[in-house]
Amino acid sequence: MGGVTSNMAAKLAFFPPDPPTYGVSGPPEAAEGVVVPPQKVVLTGVPIGSEEVEARRVLTSRGNEIVVMYIRNKKAKVTFLHSHGNAADLGVMYGLFVALSNHLRVNLLAYDYSGYGRSSGKPSEENTYADIEAAYKCLVETYGVKPESIILFGQSVGTGPTLDLAARLTCVRAVILQSPLLSGLRVMYPVKHTLWFDIYKNVDKITRVRCPVLIIHGKKDDTIDCSHGKQLYELCQQKYEPLWIEDGNHCDLETYPEYLKHLENFVKAIEMMTPDFAKTEASTGTLELFEKARASSDRSDISRKVVSFDRRERGRMSTGYRERPRHSTDGRHRMRKSVDLCENSGDGVANKPRKSIDRFMIRAVGLCNVDCLTEDPSKLKYKN
User: Fold this and answer.
1) CA-based R_g, the chain, Å
2) Dihedral, CA atoms, 100, 104, 106, 107, nearest 10 degrees?
3) Is 46:91 a contact under the CB 8 Å cutoff?
4) AB hydrolase-1 domain spans which residues (predicted)?
5) pLDDT tens digits for 86-133?
6) Does 284 have pLDDT greater than 50?
7) 285/144 Cα distance (integer angstroms)
8) Cα gap 374→100, rounded to integer Å
9) The pLDDT of residue 50
């Protein structure tokens, strides 16, 4: 019965492209229970080819194999770990990722969540947390990127795993949140308190992020209202000047010239900063840190030099309520209305072209957002 709640959340939150927009050729997936190092694969069907781009299969702590893509830039001083939005995969985002890497002069590692693209498993909140952990570990251990040079970049639904990881790391350089949500339930209803069955409780996690945070949101966002971004901005401990795009909607922010300009200014500012943790914390591999963190159940000490991924989440509730176990089915009738709305809309909702998805339905189910990013960099308004 415990899986019912997470299954409902998955129906509300996750819409991977079906079929995937790219293919993978290379070593087959590892047998269940077999741990193998990240293996190189080749992405097929993507619009742009480059020797600076490579992909790998990476095993997560929950047993899924996700596909990660790493873009090198010879002039890069920092590296983005990008968590993309909904109804997208690496094939959809490929052109934009290459453009961002080129224009901003950053390395960029992106990944597909479990059940997205050619990643195995099924989409769920817990799986996305394991997915970003595996991507981070790959970035540090396989590619040798120093934790203090990593900028976590989350878009829309991707702000959930991004903030979950950022709240645990002490060595992350900065965080970028594009069209972020306060929580899954708050997208649908203006609740004032965090409830146990809510998902992606960003509103409770952002106060534990100690690095600079940049928030970008469109003022005319009809999927996740701009008020979400503004409230998260107020809760940031280290605020960087936000960008509120006057006519920006949920899925067109990249087409505005001020979007790239603001990102450029942010990256330059971060590159010039010497974070306090860089003076005292040694950059070590993450394998030992992960194991130590999992053995600990104390989530309150966020200044320690380990990456904490304990899922019991003590002290996370800001309302005085005691958070019930994630696998409880109590209160599932509260979510049924939204599930029914999604089911009654027709079997093909998740498979419709990105530009034709009914906006009313998107608002009804909250996280069923469509991050229709420009695939062809030449169509973007900004130039080199």
Assistant:
1) 19
2) 10
3) yes
4) 83-199
5) 989 999 999 999 999 999 999 999 999 999 999 999 999 999 999 999
6) no
7) 9
8) 12
9) 64
Place of tokens 């591999």: 285
What confidence score (pLDDT) does residue 274 get? 75
Cα 31 to Cα 213: distance, rounded to the nearest angstrom = 40
157 Cβ contact list (under 8 Å, min separation 6)? 13, 14, 85, 86, 181, 200, 367, 369
Catalytic status, residue 250 = yes
- Show the tokens assigned to 144: 């040798």
Query: Percentage of residues in the chain with pLDDT exceeding 90?
Result: 56
* Per annotation, catalytic residue among 83, 114, 156, 308: 156
* DSSP codes of every residue in 196-215: TT-S--HHHHGGG--SEEEE
**Confidence band for 33, pLDDT divided at 50, 70 and 90:** low
Residue 117 CA to its chain's centroid (Å) = 15
Task: Select the highest-mean-pLDDT range: 22-26, 42-46, 59-63, 308-312.
Answer: 59-63
Which tokens go with 341? 């709305």
Residue 59: beta bridge partners?
65
The tokens for 174 are: 């900065």
> What is the SS3 assignment for 151?
strand
- Helix (H) / strand (E) containing 165: helix 159-166
Name the pTM for this structure. 0.72
**Burial group, residue 62, by CB count within 10 angstroms (0-12, 13-18, 19+):** middle
Given 84, 250, 338, 371, the catalytic residue: 250
- Catalytic residue selected from 221, 225, 252, 371: 221
